[in-house]
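Anyone able to model this chain together with magnesium ion?
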Amino acid sequence: MKRMTVMMLVCFSFGFTQTSENWKIHDMSRPLPPVVDPGTESTQDKPGIPPSDAVVLFDGTDLSLWCSMNGEPARWPVKNGYMETRPGTGPIQTRLGFGDCQLHVEWAAPVPAVGTGQGRGNSGVFLMGKYEVQVLDSYENLTYADGQAAAVYAQYPPLVNACRKPGQWQSYDIVFHRPRFGAQGELLAPATMTVLHNGVLVQDNVELLGGTRWLNRLPYENHSDRLPISLQDHSNPVQYRNIWIRPLVETEHKELRQTVFYSESAFGKFTGDYRINPGPPLVILNRGDRLYVRMYPGQQDELYAVAENEFVSVKVDMKVVFSEEKDGKMTKVTFYQGGGETEAERVN
Ligand code: MG
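re: yes, here you go
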């Protein structure tokens, strides 16, 4: 190997998650978001079209993706584009399991309104079969705050009561993150929920205290990452239509690997001004054992080596490649950024 200016040291790596601080700025290798047709909003007369990447759980025609809690076919009637709770048949659940998700549900309370308090238009959307967003006719119907429509039942009242009159279609848009459990079944992170009721924010990223139940705050119990969503039979004929879900992808990882380390004295062959025509020179400088590139006054980015004459920015998606060594100095630099490539020649 040539005279020792490059020291190959032990490789180390950082685990990088897809969060802003861990991706470089304008990182061209950062995955582009998939393109999704957002569909259409529902009206009272007509359910909207779900986003193109949603799993449609109920489109108003059949309950093939639902079953009773014992696995037998769901017994709720389907007619006129909706399904209806049949009192006494029990809750129904999805045949598929879900964890983190965006869930859209539309429901309508019975007309005429019958009963009072928890006895009027009661049903419920249970994430993972355990965590209920209350369905209730809360239009001019008094009950306890943590049990009205859009409450996380027995835990969090909605921020406002955005309930429509019975018989009108209402929507829940729920963003749910499942609880995380460790290897021994211990709770690492509670479930969280954000809920919009008829487009109005009613639950703002609340941390659930555990499972939801009447008169109870159940402690968390270790469970699977994916469990069915269920709809409650609370003996009131509540209607449902247009139910869809978008499972949320869990964190992606990217690895940044530094493979080459320079000694401070070796930076001399890179540091200096490089002219780009037109414009101010590109400046390569070092501060101690760190190398930087300055593209314009006041700005600079730290570089690290990935090959003998090749550096990348720690922060920005940018690569800097030096070439044509003469008298112990590199005379050319090519830098790659934003999908483009620019060459510059040493001027000092
Ligand atoms: Mg309920």
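Residues 122-124, 132, 134-135, 232, 234 surround magnesium ion (CB under 6 Å).
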